[in-house]
Amino acid sequence: MKKIIALLGCVLLLTSCVNETQVNNPAFQAKLNDVNWKSQETTLSIGANGGLIITALRGNEKLVLTTSSANRGTYILGTTNQANFATYTLKSGNVSDVFDTGAYPGPAFLTRKLTSGNAYVNNSSALTSGGSGSGLVFKITVNNIGAIATDTIKARGANYLAGDVVTVDGGNNNATFRVMNTQQSNGELVIEEVENGTYTGSFKLNVVNEDGQVVTFSQGVFYRIPIS
């Protein structure tokens, strides 16, 4: 009798695991302002530019993620390349509040080094000049010719725009960085796996509305979403 009960228990456990896998395949979920958020309906299509369009619906909410390509890789949001874009719409009655990763001024979030310069020295508070904003400060280390080898943002400043180019003060004033996006409009979508017409990956983003309010999606994942 004990063997029969044990066998039934194994069968029930296996059935439960299979059902759970089916429920979560495909899946689209994240944390919205640190609260669990799970799509009730998710569709994926290929846009006119050959990129992905992922639409996730939950009640009166809609999150749309678009990319410039359908290939595996990392797609940065909030930059001057608006083919990589996200919108979050919250509808209340006939009114819709739209948040997106457009080009909004703000503190610099992601930067990329364009030129390393020379004659710089190690500096824990390297000031910058140029661009639309002010106050961006780096912590830098340099190599034996004074070219910037590593950089960390120490202060993000204010009123920068995606695409701004700033110069690090000091040295021969020839080390430059591009502001990729700003603190309230940024993020990334990673296409990790493409298999049999399904897509798996992850995402995180900040989107902002015209009033400057910011919504944050973190720990986002999409799993085996098929092309519609």
UniProtKB/TrEMBL annotation:
UniProt xrefs under InterPro entries: DUF6252
Signal peptide start and end residues: 1-21
Entries under Pfam families matching the protein: DUF6252
Entry keywords, A to Z: Signal
Keyword Signal: yes
The protein, known as: Lipoprotein
